[in-house]
Design goal:
Its cofactor is Mn(2+); Mg(2+). Its main location: cytoplasm. This protein is of the alpha+beta class. α1 crosses α11. The protein contains 11 helices and 13 strands. The strands form 3 sheets. Strands 8, 9, 10, 11, 12 and 13 form a 6-stranded antiparallel β-sheet that branches. A 4-stranded antiparallel β-sheet has the order 4-7-5-6, covered by helices on one side. It has a 3-stranded parallel β-sheet with strand order 2-1-3, with helices on both faces. α1 links the parallel β1 and β2. Among the domains are: 123 residues, ATP-grasp fold, B domain (D-amino Acid Aminotransferase, Chain A, domain 1, 2-Layer Sandwich); 60 residues, 2-Layer Sandwich (Dna Ligase, domain 1). 45% of the residues are buried. The protein starts with 17 loop residues before the first strand and ends in a 14-residue tail after the last helix. The longest helix has 17 residues.
């Protein structure tokens, strides 16, 4: 599969003005966000962008009020103080400050795995069957309805936070405990045996897929952000299958109201070969272990160039006539 990558729209960093790299926050994914944010900050500064770190939403409001923000590179992860649930997007829309990533609708919807899957089903897009698990729902009964093995996961968290993998009856009590500690809505879906894949989205381009091969049994938080033993095969598929996964990922991204950049996670069922959508990440990780930079590198976009291309999505097309255009 061949990729045609357009040239960057701008060459002059002055076109971006003062950029707040929004990171950290108070969500469960704070530490990952800080790592991602530092990488983005260093990359933008290496290209001459006037970029400053901002930790969390209250600090961002202060910076905007002080007149020190022309646009925001949002690398907050998660919800409840993170930047992927539509809250910060709504704030920035109200204040008229451009920002990276999907808007209010796409961010809010995809933070909720249950509602995202409902939209995909309505659009005829493939996703594993699931049961919604309200806080008062019997976890054991839901697992019995789906049938082992299953994943029990929060509907509104990312980075594998709060996920219970239930392979047999011995794991059911752990799932009950996880659900009780989390306290919010969860979902139960079958554990798909097969290949774990992800597709980065950059504008209208689906980047090459990545097949993730963890050393352990599954791709958990440790495998994502700590382990150096996880293997990443890019492209993850070949020929028609690679073209197909890009089409599905882009369709899923758009169906969920998303634009700009992000990442779509899927599984390929080993028995049937079917590609199944899992979730969308609207502010993907940008750490040394992160996946979108790995995929972008396969088509000649290095880390700093990727950050630049994401940021330039916040600049209107007609800005090319007023300065900095390539």
């Amino acid at each position: 599969m061949s990729f045609v990558v357009p040239a960057p729209r701008f060459t002059d960093p002055a076109v971006f003005g003062q950029v707040a790299v929004l990171m950290g926050g108070t969500s469960a994914e704070r530490e990952v966000s800080l790592q991602s944010g530092q990488g983005v900050l260093d990359a933008l500064r290496s290209r001459g962008v006037d970029a400053q770190p901002v930790d969390g939403i209250p600090a961002l409001v202060d910076a905007i009020r002080a007149g020190g923000v022309d646009r925001v590179f949002n690398i907050l992860h998660g919800n409840r103080g993170g930047g992927e649930d539509g809250v910060v997007q709504g704030l920035l829309e109200a204040l008229g400050v451009p920002y990276t990533g999907p808007g209010v609708l796409g961010s809010a919807l995809t933070m909720d795995k249950v509602r995202t899957k409902q939209v995909w089903i309505a659009e005829g897009l493939p996703t594993p069957r699931f049961l919604r698990l309200p806080p008062d729902r019997d976890v054991r009964a839901a697992i019995a309805d789906i049938g082992l093995p299953v994943f029990v996961k929060p509907s509104c968290e990312g980075s594998s936070v709060g996920v219970a993998r239930v392979a047999d009856a011995n794991g059911i009590e752990d799932a009950v405990r996880v659900a009780r500690e989390y306290g919010g809505e969860m979902l139960v879906e079958p554990l798909v045996v097969g290949d774990e894949l992800t597709v980065g989205i950059l504008g209208d381009l689906a980047l090459p897929s990545i097949r993730i091969v963890p050393k352990g049994e599954w791709y958990d938080y440790h495998a994502k952000y700590v382990s150096d033993d996880t293997r990443y095969l890019c492209p993850g598929l070949e020929g028609d299958e690679e073209a197909r996964i890009g089409e599905i990922a882009l369709a899923a991204f758009r169906a969920a109201g998303c634009s700009g950049w992000g990442r779509v996670d899927l599984m390929r069922d080993r028995a049937s070969g079917e590609l199944l959508l899992l979730e969308v990440n609207t502010a993907p990780g940008m750490t040394s272990h992160s996946l979108v930079p790995k995929a972008a590198a396969q088509v000649g976009i290095d880390y700093a160039d990727l950050c630049w291309r994401v940021l330039e999505q916040t600049v209107p097309a007609d800005a090319a006539s007023t300065g900095g255009a390539a």
